[in-house]
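Bug report

Summary: structure tokens for V-type proton ATPase subunit S1 differ between web form and batch submission.
Environment: batch mode, default settings.
Steps: 1) Submit the sequence below via batch. 2) Compare with the web form result.

Sequence submitted:
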Amino acid sequence: MARFYSVAPVQLFWYLTGLFKVALAVDHVPMLLWSTESSLWNSETTLHEGHIITKQELPTVLQPIFTQSSKNLVLFLQDMLSIDDFTYYSESYGTEKPFHNVQEILKSSSSSLILSAVDSEAARYLLDYLLGVVDWKLTNIDNLNDASEMEVNTSKSNLFVIKLQPGNRLNDISMAKIFAANDKVIGRLTMSLQERGIHFSVIYTAMRSSRIPRITDVALKSRRQLMTIEVPDSILYPPLSVTNGTETCILMYASNFSITANKSVHVDLTNSTFVSRNVDFSSSACSAANTTLSLKYSNPVDNINSLEIRFLMTKRFFAGSARNWFTLETVEIVQDNRKVARFNVSVISAPAEYSFHCQLVGTSNLYGANLIPSNNEAKSWDIFISEFQIQGFSVENNRFSYASDCTSFFSPGIWMALVTSIILLWILTYGIHMIMQLTTNSRFDDPKGLALSVPQTE
């Protein structure tokens, strides 16, 4: 198989790692394409500097894939990906080398194209577009270990969709290992197809960005920091809404919703909850004083047949503030109808007419709001929720109300700055006071005259 080597892919890959540090928007994902066919893309058009590929422009970019003689396409889908991932995880983590195989493939591919920014809406539309353009033989590969052994019928147009392993972005080392493992899958499959002499093209991208945009307008209307958090038109997905028949009674949003069982089994529920909506919330209940958000998942991962997560909220009147407040009392996890793992919740409360927002919520003490295990079953679970927002009462127009944030007015950093400033100001004041108390002698000794005698009475 003839190859045409070029230095352009190498330059493009390193260009990708430094591009868009100050991007115009964060609601976009990178897209890497390569093929065994030569000259699919003109090297002059591979750099899209400062430009985000839209849903309308993406078909034009992908058109060369469908004009080649062999129509075998492999689509690698990461759960979340951004430009910063290539920069942040470009270096080795011990024996792990994230994106090493991808870099080498870009060097040796006959044709390659790197799109630094593709609108997330276009990325979500990608699979539907591909299925509508060519009469593909679609193959979804769930077992990544068998990906390199897949059967290819070269007499037909084949589309292989491989969903790569998601990761926990709270831990950099864990995320680097996930990227390295996915990189190995890409490398093994690419080498397997090349060794069998099969011509093919590859698209490597993600459904959504790993950075979630939010809009906040500060309004000081409570004992905590209040802000309006609206869902802009370009947000990746709308919040999960539960109705009591006619009206919305519960809203929930999170940019990352993940749990880990026994420190080893990681379950990312973000896509199932907010994107594909492969979740059953029919058991949720709403009333004037109590609200329960029940999320049921079927076979979220191997070895877990069913999983239910409940958020139990109450509303009470407090005479001190002369108003109703809602509180998230407990979070419960039920796996395969076993005993309930129950977590007590700290900090999560707000006026009943507001929603609650916190950047990080979970079982770690480092988060803004903590989920504290209250029984032995809960100790085997770890929960991580980022950009968490929930409202269980007084929902109007299917939108979040003002949000009471878990971050108080005086954070530890502000207190440290205030204390340090006060100490330095006290030192300065004391020094100025001492300088002002300095006086000169009223009499001086004359060496040519008699010695100065100062009576003790003076």
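Above is the batch result. After comparison, the two runs are identical; trailing whitespace caused the diff. The mean pLDDT is 79. Helices lie at 8-18, 58-67, 83-88, 100-108, 120-133, 172-195, 270-275, 412-436.
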